[in-house]
Write a structure and sequence with these properties.
This protein is an alpha+beta fold. 37% of the residues lie in helices and 21% in strands.
């Protein structure tokens, strides 16, 4: 019997109320009687193996996809089987899909405009995992024997050999009491329409259409770790991490879309009827040493196996007949914008920009706008234009931040001008510690002095407070947008991956040191300034050593601009005064004297 779990069920202690106990006994009797009556009068042929809930908060309680089998003696259908295994290859300018009539499943799904880590055409079918757990567009039922029969049968295909899209291909199979029809329609984009149904004894049974075993570009443990189950229900999108995916869980809709994704690619179902759709999730372990290939050779390690989860998803229908569009392709912004769910939601929500989502998305859209202005009309992957887009975009960001940097420098200088008066207030109160009751009164006087002179204690920190979120948001974005995958720039062959020769990280460490060296810090302790001069280069070196080289490019260009800006600023009256105060500050720390800053003119 399948186990049905109620997520609202709670534990309880012993009860002494006899009325309550009698009520519980009566309810148990009613439930047992109802189960007996259902088993006798309405048997089910399929049920989920596990209904553990691991879905988004908006999902309903896990339950099997409804399927009703008419009672009566089994009906033997007319046999429909092919005599031998054949292949059908469907292609357009974007993809080349190879079907086998064994199971009517996909054996290869090549994206023509993308390459794998070995420079070969990218095949989104994870062949090693698919051999173990099922190929794309296979049918999953809650009865392993039926699932196996559907996958091993030789279907009769309406077309074999090469087929040019737009086109439709139908696979039919019938044996014993099973009848199967799978029809796939292809157009000029990355979207395929599917219409599948499995009948048993003439009645539909639950047979979700599946992408059960990850993607072919998952070349290492990180690739598997980036896999997610992506869903959208009533406009709310979710990206369920692989650690939270439960194998065999079934979740009823409504679903705008549902499927599996990794860092750069997706295979998601867009149901024709969002309310009729259900989601089945898969999670199985696989030893990547045995399935990952480099240059066509399996990577077999003598060390212990590296077990990682490979996740998948299937779309079912309460009616038993699955009708859906399927998007299988890159998470490219322009591509996703052109695809909408039945309810009108664009697929751009498939791109997970992470915890810095709004900032990362804004940065990407800005960089994309720059790229559109400087790049060819239809740049191919590997084009240098994205590297130049990063350079130009970085220059624009720094020009926009220039007024804030100047304002921050003025704020720091104002603070230093008030330092003698602040020191006098502290001396008048006896320099109380932070826990001394006098400290509150002293701080109130200091704040009143700063307010009177228009000085904000946070004014000098604003540029830094803006720079760090931009930096982390840029790092997240550059590792999650497919546009930068394999984008070339001089010796860099992938702006989303680390610099293979570590040239940019080393230059970045040097440029970070020069930024600290040339930027005066009149309000900063000299010892702290020296510490920052060495910790910032080390931090930047660590951040970019093995991470997105596009980030190192962005950071280096930003540092170069800051050095040039500071060189110009240091020659102005503001820069000269800041450097003078900084030098006085250093001398006073060495001699123990108070800084005598330039008096401020009261207005």
């Amino acid at each position: 019997m399948p186990e049905y779990r109620n997520p609202n069920q709670t534990g309880g202690g012993s009860q002494d109320n006899r009325g309550f106990m009698v009520m519980m006994i009566v309810m148990i009797g009613l439930i047992a009687g109802l189960q007996f009556w259902r088993a006798k009068h309405n048997p089910q042929t399929a049920s989920p193996a596990d209904t553990a809930a691991t879905a988004p908060a908006s999902s309903s309680t896990p339950s099997p996809v409804a399927s009703a089998i008419a009672p009566g003696a089994p009906v033997t259908a007319e046999t429909v089987q092919a005599a031998a295994e054949t292949t059908t290859v469907v292609q357009n300018e974007l993809y080349k899909i190879t079907f086998s009539n064994r199971g009517g499943e996909v054996r290869s799904w090549i994206l023509k405009r993308y390459q794998d880590t070995d420079g070969q055409p990218l095949d989104l079918v994870h062949d090693g995992a698919a051999k173990l757990y099922g190929y794309p567009l296979s049918l999953y039922t809650y009865d392993p024997a039926i699932t196996k029969a559907l996958a091993s049968g030789l279907y009769v295909a309406s077309a074999t050999g090469n087929v040019a899209a737009p086109a439709s291909v139908t696979f039919k199979y019938a044996a014993g009491d099973l009848q199967v029809t799978k029809t796939f329609s292809f157009g000029a984009d990355y979207v395929v329409h599917a219409d599948t149904q499995v009948l048993r004894n003439g009645s539909p049974i639950a047979a979700p259409l599946a992408w059960p075993a990850g993607f072919g570009d998952q070349a290492d443990a990180l690739g598997y770790a980036n896999a997610t189950i992506d869903t959208s229900s009533k406009g709310k999108d979710e990206h369920i991490a692989f650690k939270k995916v439960s194998g065999g869980a079934t979740l009823n809709g409504p679903w705008d879309y549902l499927g599996v994704a990794d860092q750069y690619f997706s295979a998601v179902f867009l149901p024709d009827n969002v309310d009729d759709a259900s989601l089945v999730t898969f999670s199985r372990n696989i030893d990547i040493n045995k399935v990952v290939r480099h240059n066509g050779v399996p990577t077999v390690s003598a060390k212990k196996p590296i077990e990682v989860p490979v996740i998948g998803a299937a779309m079912g229908a309460k009616s038993g007949r699955v009708q859906t569009r399927i998007f299988v392709g890159p998470k490219d912004w322009a591509v996703l914008t052109a695809v909408q769910s039945t309810s009108g939601e664009k697929l751009t929500s498939l791109i997970d920009f992470g915890m810095w989502g709004p900032i990362s998305k804004a940065l990407f859209l800005g960089m994309r706008a720059v790229h559109s202005a400087i790049a060819p009309a239809n740049p191919q992957p590997g084009n240098w234009s994205w590297g130049w887009a990063i350079v130009v975009f970085t220059i624009l960001i720094n020009l926009l931040m220039l007024p804030l940097r100047i304002k921050g420098m003025k704020s720091m200088l104002k603070m230093q001008r008030l330092q003698p008066e602040i020191n006098a207030i502290k001396a008048r109160h006896g320099n109380p510690g932070p826990t001394d009751p006098k400290a509150a009164k002293m701080n109130a006087e200091v704040m009143a002095l700063q307010k009177e002179n228009g000085v904000s204690m946070f004014g000098g920190c604003i540029p830094t407070l803006l720079t760090l979120p931009l930096l982390f948001a840029m790092l997240t974005m550059m590792q999650r947008v497919v546009e930068l995958r394999h984008a070339h720039f001089f010796w860099l062959h992938d702006l989303s991956a680390g610099d293979p020769y570590h040239i940019l990280p080393i230059i970045l460490a040097l440029s970070s040191f020069l930024v600290q060296f040339y930027t005066p810090s009149p309000g900063v302790d000299p010892a702290q300034a020296r510490m920052m001069a060495f910790t910032m280069p080390l931090f930047s070196l660590y951040m970019t050593w093995n991470y997105a080289s596009g980030l190192a490019l962005y950071w280096n260009i930003g540092n170069l601009i800051m050095i040039l800006q500071q060189q110009v600023t240091n020659r102005t009256s503001l820069g000269k005064e800041m450097r003078a105060v900084a030098e006085k500050n250093a001398k006073s720390k060495a001699t123990g004297k108070t800084i005598q800053a330039k008096p401020q003119t009261r207005r």
